[in-house]
Amino acid sequence: AVVSTQSTGRFQEAIKLQTISYSVHDSNTTAILLLLDHIQQQYPTMHSSPFVTLEMFNLSSLYIIKGTNESIPPVLLAGHIDVVPAEIEKWSFLPFSGSVDNGFIYGRGTLDNKNTVFGVLEALEYFLSSGRQLKRTLYFAVGHDEEVMGLYGATAITEELKKRGTRFGFMMDEGCPVLKEGSFPGYKGPVGLIGVAEKGFATIKLNIEHPGGHASAPPPDGGAIGILKDAIYNLRNNPMSHMFGQGVEVAMFEHAAVSQSIFLRILSSNLWFFSPLVAAIQSLKDAPRAQITSTLAFTQISGGVKDNVLPNSASVTINSRILPGHTVDDIVEHVRKIINNADIKIDVIYANEASPISSTESEGYNVLHHTIKQIFPEAIVLPGLLTGGTDSKYYGELCDDVYRFAPSYLSAEDIKLFHGHDELITVKNYEQTINFFYHLLNNLDKSFEVKLHDEL
């Protein structure tokens, strides 16, 4: 696709609009409406094309780009325009300025997830401007509330498409990036990760009621806060057991083996023997460990009203990310067993199960694999697990093969920019994003085969 300064300018204007989702029932609807208008105005060919239909679901958009052959199962692309809040004082540039400095575009949404949305829009506008029509029908879902569970956007779109009996050949949502050189063990080059599964999610609240009293005569158990402290300590020191060798990591290491150094190639190709060693190595750091086990994070705590009064109650909120192979019930049972205190009430506030694991031999995986190699020819492409959540947890009901990928070129350190301070994307990488989606449009009608190495 032809990427111009106008393309970057349109993206910058989108970043300036503060499309913040604060909670399920609190979002900046004015900014979202302005952004939807910006999209309509800046992509006139797409919005006037006889091949394109736009349907609105609350403030989420569903584009249907009709293909010439309706006998081929359609494909779904998904992204979202809402963003999380930003603490202005902690940014080098104003988070909604869209500033360009030294080849970087700064702003909330540059990585999560306006880059995907506008990359698709730019690619579609260029494709349709040539007068061409896709052979295969494409759906493009743009959510407005993904950051607060997608309950009014992706959920509504999914329910309507289920009523219509729509089934997709495959879909791609936001997800794993292209990791920069040196980010993957035993391989010096970049690695494109296609998320073939994503973790489930549970918000669990622990609450303890206690008689309370004066702080001058505390009980031996420490009161409500002391009891809750013990529960937190026990959970922190008794994590869920790892499931290395039973999930996505098996395919990831098998695909990686041919490109790794000889020592790690032997490990990766013989996990049946070396799984305990590799699992021990994975467990040494936070991010690799999260790939092989379900996690519990203590995110909110409450208790006490005065410095000399023992509180009558205390609570802690746990955010759990659930590995495929574990269930929400498994997590709750683990918490119950480890805290071992019937006085502590356990409430599941919100939960969704982990996704199924999609095929690495499907048409969709092969198309994405080929497209990644076109834009990042030095990269090896591997299946991966997305530890965050996406709207694909709803759209997954509409197809068997769900993939999660973003053509963002990042180091392991850069991943902290998601929901963090100084979120940014390079101008070059935004151009690569547009070209990725343009190539993907052209590849949807083609067949590819990914050949793996022979086992050692």
Question: Could you describe the 3D structure shown?
Answer:
The chain contains 14 helices and 19 strands. The chain is globular. Helix 1 (5-16) packs antiparallel against helix 4 (114-129), helix 4 packs across helix 14 and helix 12 packs across helix 14 (427-443). The strands form five sheets. Strands 3, 4, 5, 8, 9, 10, 17 and 18 form an eight-stranded mixed β-sheet that branches. Strands 13-15-11-16 form a four-stranded antiparallel β-sheet, covered by helices on one side. It is α+β, with helices and mostly antiparallel strands. The model has no long low-confidence stretch (mean pLDDT 93). The two termini are 41 Å apart.
Write the layout of secondary structure elements.
Blueprint: H1 5-16, E1 21-23, E2 26-27, H2 29-42, H3 44-48, E3 52-57, E4 60-65, E5 75-80, E6 100-101, E7 104-106, H4 114-129, E8 138-143, H5 154-164, E9 170-179, E10 191-198, E11 200-209, E12 213-214, H6 223-236, H7 248-256, H8 262-269, H9 271-282, H10 286-290, E13 295-303, E14 309-310, E15 313-322, H11 328-339, E16 344-352, H12 363-375, E17 380-386, H13 392-395, E18 402-410, E19 424-426, H14 427-443
Parallel strand pairs: 5-8, 5-9, 9-18, 10-17
Antiparallel strand pairs: 1-2, 3-4, 4-8, 6-7, 7-19, 9-10, 11-15, 11-16, 12-14, 13-15
Helix pairs in contact: 1-4, 4-14, 12-14
- Uncertain spans, ≥5 residues at pLDDT below 50? none
SS-derived structural category: alpha+beta
Helix share bin:
25-40%
Major sheet, described briefly?
8 strands, mixed
Q: Gyration radius, to the nearest Å? A: 24 Å
Overall geometric form = globular
- Number of DSSP-assigned strands: 19
Q: How much of the residues is beta strand, in percent?
A: 15-25%
The residue-averaged pLDDT reads 93
Tally the helices. Answer: 14
Spatial gap, N to C terminus: 41 Å
